[in-house]
Amino acid sequence: MAVSPVELIIGAQIEEGPLTFPSFPHKQAEPRRLSSHLRGTLTRMPSQLEGAMDALITVFYNYSGNDGDKYKLNKGELKQLLNSELTDFLTSQKDPMLVEKIMNDLDSNKDNEVDFNEFVVLVAALTVACNDFFQEQQMKKAK
Questions:
Q1: Which residue ranges form the domains of the chain, and what is each CATH number?
Q2: CB hemisphere CA count around 59 (13 angstroms)
Q3: Is the pTM here over 0.70, yes or no?
Q4: CB atoms within 10 A of CB 43
Q5: pLDDT of residue 10
Q6: In 39-136, which ranges are E strands?
Q7: Nearest by Cα to 40 from 9, 1, 7
Q8: Rg (CA), the chain
Q9: Beta carbons of 46 and 54 less than 8 angstroms apart
Q10: At residue 126, does pLDDT exceed 80?
């Protein structure tokens, strides 16, 4: 079984030099969760946050690199990711230029691609918006 990037960090005994990830999830693989095995020994179950981190990494690399740089999403890959992973979000929007606007907003270095750091900005912004909506709904119920 392949070791996830989060498992590598959690279970790694850091030696001199940079920590590298020997492999990324296979393209269009089923979403994985952190396994309970690392180097053949049983480890603790991942926390919810560790699982969420692993899921973000897995989703990103499931879509990146199909057309070019395997560490970045081009516009087509970003659109495919958004359509597949955030279907309800996209269908609730009325703007036909939404993907282009998201791409332009995320692409901070203007290379017409979205790297993982830029992708995480999108996920964080959407998560904050969802939390704000949730809090508003809770306040309405409390009244």
A1: 1-45 (no CATH), 64-143 (1.10.238.10)
A2: 17
A3: no
A4: 14
A5: 54
A6: 41-42, 72-73, 114-115
A7: 1
A8: 18
A9: yes
A10: yes
Structure tokens at 124: 């964080």
Angstrom distance (rounded) from CA 112 to CA 17: 31
Per residue in 39-78, pLDDT tens? 444 466 788 998 899 999 999 999 998 888 999 999 899 9
Max Cα separation, the chain? 57
Among 19-33, 40-54, 95-109, 126-140, top mean pLDDT goes to 126-140
First and final C-alpha spacing in the chain: 51
Burial of 86 (C-beta count, 10 Å sphere; 0-12/13-18/19+): middle
- Identify the CA nearest to 5 among candidates 41, 44, 42, 46: 46
Q: Report residue 40 as tokens.
A: 């053949």
- Name the DSSP letter for residue 16: S
Question: Quick one: tokens of 118?
Answer: 């830029």
Q: How many CA atoms lie within 13 A of 80 on its CB side?
A: 16
**CA-CA distance, 6 to 138, in Å (whole number)?**
33
